[in-house]
Amino acid sequence: MSYNPVIREETIAFVAQLREQNEMNESSRSVYFPCSCRASRSSAFHALDRVASTACGHAVCRACADSARDACPLPSCRRPTTFLKILDDDTRICPICNCSEPAKRAAFPRCGHTICCACFWQIRLNAREKELLTRCPLCRSEASSTVKPIFLIEPVLVRRGRAGGAMASGRGEGRRKKVDPEEDEDACSRKRDAGQ
């Protein structure tokens, strides 16, 4: 079975676009990804207590996930779900490319390891070209076509008044404005989160 050359070229272009976003985040320092719970807005929990909804990708603290039982704890979502422990440390550094502020991250559903989406799509492209299963590069657990990765939806803050950042027509310099992440791979989640 040969890999469709059109899809291959589109994937290569998409990976390049994601890497460009990652480089912009690193060089401008205008975007900040706080390690806070998206449901309770609390930053008083440790990064090792983070979980992600397998249905929608929302990253929340373990306490909010436990209190919501079998649904996403965000009031605007509430999708039935299970939760996956996110295996990362206090930083967002991608363990593959060492990007310190990746625009988007993916978690492998069998192990919970996270990498930036640019690395994920590159790994998936390489595996498909060789007709292999996509595997976590850290522990080798598989993410096949039936076991999809979880594209994390995490809080994003934009620092205003910084070079390369969003400027606020002379007012509010240094203030941060909470925004949703740029588009994720799940169109339903994107539409649902637009109302937040």
Automatic annotation (TrEMBL):
Superkingdom, natural source: Eukaryota
Location of region: Disordered: 164-196
Protein name, per record: Zinc finger protein
Gene3D superfamilies in the record: Zinc/RING finger domain, C3HC4 (zinc finger)
PROSITE patterns: ZF_RING_1, ZF_RING_2
Organism expressing this protein natively: Pristionchus pacificus (Parasitic nematode worm)
Compositionally biased tracts (Basic and acidic residues): 187-196
